[in-house]
């Protein structure tokens, strides 16, 4: 078992892409501002990549050459020292799962998890990031409730607001799964028109069910945005111009498939947008460039005329060319919006501000027995 003087807080979620990494960044920044010594880890990984030069680890990793990309990113963002990092214990990829199903992996992962956390004793509080939902990892006895039990950890759940029913039901189920280890929940991405009903109806109901509501975060277009660079990667696109502006953030998606007059009215309704249109629709391309467009995506792999490229260069608007048809292109972009990652400075600052305004840090610290940290 882990050192009893060291507290573990597991940040889990009711579904994948609920915003756990963003919440961890915002929470950790607040805790560091209070002078707290933090450690961080993600026991179960789904996005492993080569370890960077400063990602040193001497503990009982089963796959030492690799480290979870979220671990690398949060480590850099929070300025954590190597001895405050808990690298990924197990990668949930298809091969690993198949080996377990075939009986070729008899590892006792509960035992490995205990060793994994004993190897590094640094930090007043260890923030552990859970997998996609409360069931993922159960094949290896490493689902979030099992991790929490093994490490005697408390659990903070993150839930993305869907609707009243689609938000409350999973949280009630989660309460049954996590039990008394549940220190509270944070509901994020709440549309403006739903904030009041969440505050006046949903929050009191959850509190009455023994589910502390520690935060209600309003929706943010910036946090839901996708960088042009990410769209290039997802679409396997060719960058035709303004390759130095791939850091622009896209908040909306529009399709240019109408006449130019209708297109202008349509384009003016959305800002910071990507416009998808055919490579042969020069009129639509010019119309898009005259509005708040952060990226022009041309389908059919048809190059635009030099006049369009020049206008885009003047306005510093990247133009991408893709081989996909419009329907496929739009589907890929919509998936990208649903799986956004917090890996830009503007997003980090945004989540830090939202957490500072809408998260009850004193209540969390009191529940963890760390209330004095606010005044120490």
What this model shows, in words?
With 376 residues, the chain is of the alpha/beta class. It is built from 14 helices and 18 strands. The strands form five sheets. A seven-stranded parallel sheet has the order 6-2-8-1-9-10-11, sandwiched between helices. Strands 13-18-17-16-15 form a five-stranded mixed sheet, with helices on both faces. A two-stranded parallel ribbon has the order 3-7. Strand 17, helix 11 and strand 18 form a beta-alpha-beta unit. Helix 4 packs across helix 5, helix 8 packs across helix 12 and helix 10 packs parallel to helix 11. The longest helix is centred in the middle third of the chain and has 15 residues. The protein is globular. The chain starts with 6 loop residues before the first strand and ends in a 9-residue tail after the last helix.
